[in-house]
User: Fold this.
Amino acid sequence: MGEHPEGIIYPELSYKIIGLAFEVFNELGSGHKEKVYHKAMAIQFKEALLTFKAELYHPLIFKKNNLEKNFFDFLAEESVVVELKRSDYFSKSHFDQLNHYLQISKLKLGLLISFTSSGVRFKRVVNLK
Assistant:
């Protein structure tokens, strides 16, 4: 499940996770709180037999001092940070948050998934550092 020959990172895993989000939306529809979608995605991860950690604590450490507390919505298969939103658009702060998580975790791929009023939107975010 690593890098694809064309350079796409974790293509099968990311497509599977995005598919799970579409299944959640197809069944629940729009208008729910983010935590409802979060709980539904956890159920989807379990049913798809994907290993995951929800609300994963990941501190930012500097010289053995904790500078910041961070909580990823999900870490799937120890490889992909998944951040859920409930918004019709992605803001700069959404991308900044996910980029920050990728940098502090040193992971290569994050998925930003938003449950909008009309469907699921998603963006793949690659950590280039």
Notes: The domain at 11-126 is CATH 3.90.320.10 (Lambda Exonuclease; Chain A).
